[in-house]
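Same chain as my last thread, 764 residues:
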Amino acid sequence: MTRRRSGPVTPKLASLLEMLPLPALMAASEALTLEGHGSVVTYSPKVFIPLTRLCRDVCHYCTFAKVPREVEKPFLSRDEVLAIARAGEALGCREALFTLGDRPEARYGAARQALADSGHPTTLSYLAEMARAVVEETGLLPHLNPGLLTAADYAALRPHAASMGIMLESTSERLCEPGGPHHGSPDKHPARRLAALRAAGRARVPLTTGLLIGIGETRAERIEALAAIRDIHRRHGHIQEVIIQNFRAKPDTQMADHPEPSIDEHLWTIAAARLILGPAMTIQVPPNLQAPETLADILRAGANDWGGVSPLTPDHVNPEAPWPHRDLLEQATRAAGRHLVERLAIGPRHALDPARWIHPGLAPRIWRTVDGRGLPRPDGWAPGRGDAIPAILHTGSSRSAFDRVLSSAGSGERLDEADVVALFRAEGADVAAIANQADRLRRSAVGEQISYVVNRNINYTNICLYKCSFCAFSKGSTRAARGAAYRLDRDMIAGRAAEAAERGATEVCLQGGIHPSFDGNTYLDVLRTVRDAAPGLHVHAFSPLEIMHGARTLDLPLPRYLEMLAAAGLNTLPGTAAEILDPEVRAILCPDKVTADEWVEVMRAAHRIGLRSTATIMFGHVDTYAHWARHLLRIRDLQEETGGFTEFVPLPFVHMEAPIWQKGRARCGPSYREAILMHAVSRIALHATIDNIQVSWVKMGRDGAAAMLQAGANDIGGTLMDESITRAAGGTNGQQFGPEEIGALALSIGRPHRQRTTLYGSAA
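reply #2:
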């Protein structure tokens, strides 16, 4: 038997846990749960597909497994499987849970014959075909519970499943001895179960496992099992959730008269699991096996997931225990101060890294379903698409956990990464509380006026040397597939600048791709062209990528090149090309672009010679809330050093034509909830350092912009004659949003508006 490091410390750990009174144990566990998961409690709307109820094991508490004479036929047919899946999909289910006995062909001739008749050598082969059919013909994601699997088995099933599961149940060998519940069940020997858990880790399969408590094990043996799960997960990182399931005595079984564990025993084990497994682990408790009045206490003890709940199919393993209605779950979850949210068959931590954990054939389905938490997007809204905005802000008070963070931010203190991440994880009434606090900070910082600048975009070329995976604007050659490539000549640039001035613009914004023929002199020539054509225009030009390219091609230090640009007419810089200032994200989105450090270096150098700039974030693609937090705090740190940023601009990722999305390797932009939180949390995290938060009407649309202006934003940016970058990505919100339209928007939310200069002075 494999030796486990956790064994020698188990008695000491058990003794320590025994010493704590249950209320204290639960309080410590709940604090860890909130640290790891915030207020969110998840569940999976699913259907249960009992592919076969035949099993070679004879667990003494089980009523799921049958013998051939007790079933109409050994296996469900393909049509029966798909009928269940399609009915569940029609009711809003996301998961197809395949439950089945362990390798029944090893015990029953009827199973062998049925498999032969269907053209399959094994139950696992048949399971793979049925799971593949569900993937191909429905929108459900399969989760497979076929029992013990080898590395080869996992490899064969992985293309057809988002996740798999095998309950460890216990590491007690005693339970396999004569008279024990697992006697006569070869697949329940702990060493074999642990080997299957390790094999799943090596196969990179997101795995559900857990304990069945109350079948004769001791508390110390439960702790030994939890420590074994912890150690295996530390090595492979693949355990997506741990179920703490209570034994239920069933008639007509050998354990019909065995006592069931008390609720206090269950709560103790849940809390122990949380303390052993840590804040990040998802701990699941099946709600149908509990008394309704105990559900809130189960969450307080450390659970954060209710598992699969079906609106269609019964719990075939516990048919005597019907699923609670979602309203009851929501009520119990609310009673514990939490928010009930749907999840997928793959847990959120693993859903955020499909490239590692999901077969390539299934990964696009995950990417296009989830938000930045790895949970299903709660609505059909996407930025830039012209969708009606959802109504998600709720009334109510926030949790006390947010009060400290909001109070600290309101006094101008720098939040840490964990605090900012916690704000981004807000749900329900907490979102409203954060948005309201951001609006109050906006009011105290800049007052009630909504500001805007009259400007024109001049994107002088869309030909670019770089291969940014998110960009639908740039073209690699004149024969690019996504529209015609172009380069404006000097006369065209001059004409557009002069026309902008004639139409009342005070600013021209110049940006373009990195054309193969461009060097540092090109940007100097563009500036002189605009200056000659429209001397009175404020020139807001060149991203840090363009600045860095220009300096390098002339072999000049950044400060010297920036001084040359300023002398040629540059007034301020746009803070684009930032995307996410984190190397993990940039390695995927733009590996050949300026690094995060180089972007900061350009901005620091510009600010030091007196050139001010905006700062941006492009969010909602392959990033997480931790990346967002690091980006915001890096912007704040540079602002405290230089004071050079005029505004912060959240730019939601517009996905429709983005190459990375079309390849199935990015999310569909932020959810609407995330868009609200980005604007609000930006205001809160940057308070007392950057006064102006801008909403992009191009990305958010008119109604979305109005909502953001009530959630911390105070500026609507520019009128943007000739906007083209978002339109290239599939955006539909128009090329221009004029002063009259801005005035009507301001009136609709009861706020005054004013035209500003680029540096937020009066344009009158």
